[in-house]
Write a structure and sequence with these properties.
Shape: globular
Order of helices and strands: EHEEEHEEHHHHHEEEEHHHHHHHH
CATH topology of the largest domain: Aminoglycoside 3'-phosphotransferase, Chain: A, domain 2
CATH class of the largest domain: Alpha Beta
Distance between the termini: 64 Å
Number of domains: 2
Number of helices: 15
Number of strands: 10
Strand order of the largest sheet: 1-2-3-4-6-5
Helix content: 40-55%
C-alpha cells in the first residue's frame, strides 16, 4: 500500500481499508494500492466527531484497477466529548444505517441517506459511508438560511421518513427501544460546561433584546426566565405529552442535508438526503419540525409560508404515505399541529442557540465573551458580525412569536 503524504491516523491502516473494500466490492479479492486522506469538513462543522474524506485506489480480479472515495466518521469520546457517551451516538447511528434505514427506504420507496460500507468500535467508534458528492449532491452554505423551494423538498422528505418509521413501529413495536435519548440528554444539559455555554448564549440574547426598541417587556420576561431557562428546555425536549411517535432525525438542520438539483448549474432542488443520524430519537415529530424551522429557514419563509410548509408539504405527504402503507390510524393535521406546539420551547432554545452560534462563529468566542462582559464593547462586537442585521431580525421574530405563545411566561 502506498499512502499519501498527509498523516493517516494509526487506526486507519491498510487492514481497516481492506475490510471496507470487501464490503464495498462485496467480494474478497480486492487489494488496496494507495490511500489519500484529507479532512472531510471544516473545524467545528460536525458534532463530537472527526470526518475524513478518503480516496483509495484498489485492484481486484488480478488486473482490474479502480478508485473510490469514502467518508470516514470517527467519534472519540475523550476530553470534552465524554459527556456525550451516554447518548449512545455511535450505537444509534450504526443501528440506523444497518437496521433501520433499509426498512424505511423500502417502505417509502426512496433513499434517505448515503450507503454505509463498514462500522467498527475498535479501537475508535468509526463508520464509513459513500461520498454523496460523487452522486452530484451538494450542501448549501451552513450560514445561509434555506429558501422556500429547499424547505418544500425537506418537509416532504421528512414526512416520508416519519411516516415510514410509524409503519415500522406498527409492525415491530420494540424496534426503537434503543432510541429513547436524542442529541440532548439530562447529563448533557446538566454538564457544567454545557450549562454555562447554553446560559451565556441566552444572556447574550437578553442583552441584544434589551437594546431593541419595542422589546423592553420581552427582555424583562427573559431576565425572569433566565434561572430556569435550561431546565425548561430540557423538560420540554424530554416531554412525553405527545400522542404521536416517530423516529426523529434529531439534528435536522441545513448542514445535515444534501440536495440534488435539476443540473449542476441549477439552484432548483429535486431531492434531498439526510446525513448524521447519530441524534435519532423516538418521540414526537415536533422535535424535528421545530428544530429545522428554528435553525435553518429564512425569516420571510417563517413569516409567510409556515402554514404552507406544514400543511401542504409535510402533513399531506405524511398522510398520503401512511395511507399507501395501510397505516391503521392516520393522524389528523390537528394531531400534528398539537405535537409541534408541544415542543415550541425546544424550538425557542434551538433558535437562540443557532443564532448565537452564528454570531460566535463570525466574531470568535473571545470577542463574544468580550461583548457579553463589557458594556462598552457590546455594540462594537455585535456590529462586527457580517450578518448582524439578519441575525437581529431573526432573533426579534423568534422572540416576538415566543412571547405571543406564552413561552416566556413563568
Amino acid at each position: 500500500m502506498e499512502e499519501s503524504k498527509l498523516a493517516v491516523p494509526e487506526y486507519l491502516d491498510n487492514a481497516f481499508f481492506q475490510e471496507v473494500l470487501r464490503n464495498y466490492l462485496k467480494r474478497p479479492d480486492g487489494n488496496i494500492d494507495r490511500i489519500e486522506l484529507s479532512m472531510g469538513c471544516g473545524s467545528g462543522e460536525n458534532f463530537c466527531s472527526v470526518i475524513y474524506r478518503v480516496r483509495v485506489q484498489f485492484s481486484y480480479d488480478k488486473s482490474k484497477c479502480e478508485s473510490a472515495t469514502w467518508i470516514v466518521k470517527s467519534m472519540p469520546y475523550v476530553g470534552e466529548y465524554e459527556v456525550f457517551e451516554d447518548m449512545q451516538l455511535f450505537k444509534k447511528e450504526s443501528e440506523t444505517y444497518f437496521k433501520i434505514l433499509p426498512e424505511l427506504d423500502k417502505f417509502a420507496q426512496t433513499n434517505f441517506g448515503p450507503s454505509c460500507y463498514y462500522v467498527t468500535s475498535t479501537p475508535i467508534d468509526t463508520i464509513v459511508f459513500e461520498d454523496l458528492k460523487l452522486r452530484r449532491l451538494r450542501q448549501i452554505d451552513r450560514f445561509n438560511a434555506i429558501d422556500e423551494s429547499h424547505c418544500a423538498i425537506v418537509f416532504s422528505k421528512l414526512a416520508k421518513f416519519h411516516a415510514a418509521s410509524m409503519h415500522l413501529a406498527e409492525k415491530n413495536p420494540n424496534i426503537f427501544d434503543n432510541f429513547q435519548i436524542g442529541m440532548y440528554s439530562e447529563r448533557n444539559f446538566q454538564a457544567e460546561q454545557n450549562r454555562e455555554f447554553f446560559l451565556k448564549k441566552f444572556q447574550m440574547a437578553i442583552k441584544i433584546t434589551e437594546r431593541t426598541a419595542g422589546y423592553e417587556s420581552i427582555a424583562k420576561k427573559m431576565k425572569v426566565l433566565e434561572p430556569t431557562y435550561i431546565q425548561r428546555a430540557w423538560e420540554n425536549f424530554d416531554s412525553k405529552k405527545g400522542l404521536l411517535k416517530v423516529l426523529n432525525h434529531g439534528d435536522l438542520w441545513r448542514n445535515n442535508l444534501f440536495f440534488k438539483y435539476e443540473s449542476d448549474e441549477s439552484n432548483i432542488p429535486t431531492e434531498c438526503l439526510f446525513i448524521d443520524y447519530q441524534g435519532c430519537i423516538y418521540s414526537g415529530p415536533g422535535i424535528d419540525i421545530n428544530y429545522f424551522l428554528n435553525t435553518s429557514v429564512q425569516i420571510d419563509i417563517l413569516k409567510g409560508k409556515r402554514d404552507y410548509l406544514l400543511k401542504e408539504c409535510y402533513y399531506q405527504t405524511l398522510r398520503k404515505t401512511l395511507e399507501e402503507l395501510s397505516y391503521k390510524k392516520v393522524p389528523t393535521y390537528s394531531d400534528v399541529e398539537a405535537d409541534i406546539l408541544n415542543y415550541e420551547f425546544f424550538g425557542l432554545f434551538s433558535a437562540i442557540g443557532s443564532s448565537i452560534n452564528q454570531l460566535i462563529h463570525e466574531l470568535s468566542y473571545a470577542k463574544f465573551l468580550e461583548g457579553l462582559n463589557d458594556e462598552k464593547r457590546f455594540e462594537t462586537c455585535i456590529n462586527l458580525a457580517p450578518r448582524a442585521e439578519k441575525f437581529r431580525a431573526k432573533l426579534e421574530y423568534v422572540l416576538r412569536r415566543a412571547d405571543s405563545l406564552g413561552l416566556l411566561d413563568q
